[in-house]
Amino acid sequence: MDIVQVVVLALIQGITEFLPISSSAHLILPKELLGWPDQGLAFDVAVHVGTLSAVMFYFRRDIVDLISGWGLSVAGKGTNSNGRVAWCIIAATIPAGVFGLLFDDYIEANLRSTSVIATTTILFGVVLAVADRLPSKVKDLTQLTLYAAIIIGFAQALALIPGTSRSGITITAALFLGFSRTDSAKFSFLLSMPIILLGGGYKGLELVLGNAEVDWLALGLGILLSGASAYLCIHYFLSFINRLSMMPFVVYRLVLGVLLIAYTL
After folding, report:
1. Angle at the Cα of 218 (from 109 to 54), degrees rounded to 5?
2. Can you give the residue range of the structural domain that contains 112?
3. How far apart are CA 50 and CA 46, in angstroms?
4. How far is CA 211 from CA 67, 207, 216, in A?
5. Contact indicator for 179, 140 with CB cutoff of 8 Å
6. For residues 13 and 50, is the Cβ–Cβ distance under 8 A?
7. Cα separation, 188 vs 156, whole angstroms
8. Global pTM?
9. All residues at 6 or more sequence positions from 123 whose CB lies less than 8 Å from its CB, including other chains
10. pLDDT tens digit string along 197-237?
11. Three-state DSSP string of the chain
């Protein structure tokens, strides 16, 4: 990749990873529409390191509280609200992890196409719109149950299909369960950490075993740009949805999906 491709793809990853519009779809599109070469496994790992660093730094205080609460629970000293949320994050991560191991190769070979992205972009955009319009979104994370977390976890597994959007589908599921927009997004972001870590670790292992050549300058720039843009995206997204709604993202998904369909005809 040249420097322009590195910058564009790193920013795309950082901006779209936590918005409900699918980062995987947007990373596939430059290759499909502009004829760019695949960014490669090493760069994919790098930009995921960047976004993981961003979300961990943004929620660093929450992470400390969650680990502390989980530790008390494991030690048999009672389970507080932080401990419950921590166990819920663990439970919600399992479905995507299992489905990823079972179906990642099939999805990689058969579902990373413009037509699939267009379909899922529109379909799950409509589902997000329905969830956002439902009344009684008043629950916060202190009311999160293991049952609700597992439902959100199975929803997250659907994000293995390009165009679905991991953040989009988990926020959608939380909205359907009655959680507020802000807490739906916050749980989605917290839930992203173990799944990005697992996915990045798996790809990192592939990279090490494959003994591929590495462009360290491109990787460093990718980590920096994806991390900085992801951090800003998280900050402004949480502020935005607290005041408005998910509808701008729904409209974006519908327009993008229609344009992709027109492109494939």
Report:
1. 85
2. 3-264
3. 6
4. 35, 6, 14
5. yes
6. yes
7. 9
8. 0.92
9. none
10. 888 777 777 777 776 677 788 889 999 999 999 999 999 99
11. CCHHHHHHHHHHHHHHCCCCCCHHHHHHHHHHHHCCCCCHHHHHHHHHHHHHHHHHHHCHHHHHHHHHHHHHHHCCCCCCHHHHHHHHHHHHHHHHHHHHHHHHHHHHHHCCCHHHHHHHHHHHHHHHHHHHHCCCCCECHHHCCHHHHHHHHHHHHHCCCCCCCHHHHHHHHHHHCCECHHHHHHHHHHHHHHHHHHHHHHHHHHHHHHCCCCCHHHHHHHHHHHHHHHHHHHHHHHHHHHHCCCHHHHHHHHHHHHHHHHHHC
Q: Going by C-beta distance under 8 Å and a sequence separation of 6 or more, which residues neighbour residue 95?
A: 150, 153, 154, 156, 157
List pLDDT tens digits, range 40-58.
767 888 888 899 999 999 9
Q: How many domains does the chain have?
A: 1
Nearest to 42 by CA among 168, 232, 238, 204: 204
Measured CA to CA, the distance from residue 112 to residue 47 in angstroms comes to: 19
Dihedral Cα 221, 230, 22, 109, nearest 10 deg: 30
Q: List the beta bridge partners of residue 179.
A: 139
Give the Cα separation of 113 and 162 in Å (integer): 8
**3-state SS record for 108-132:** HHHCCCHHHHHHHHHHHHHHHHHHH
**Residues 157, 161: Cα–Cα separation, whole Å:** 8
**Tokens describing residue 196:** 């990005």
Q: How far apart are CA 5 and CA 105, in angstroms?
A: 26
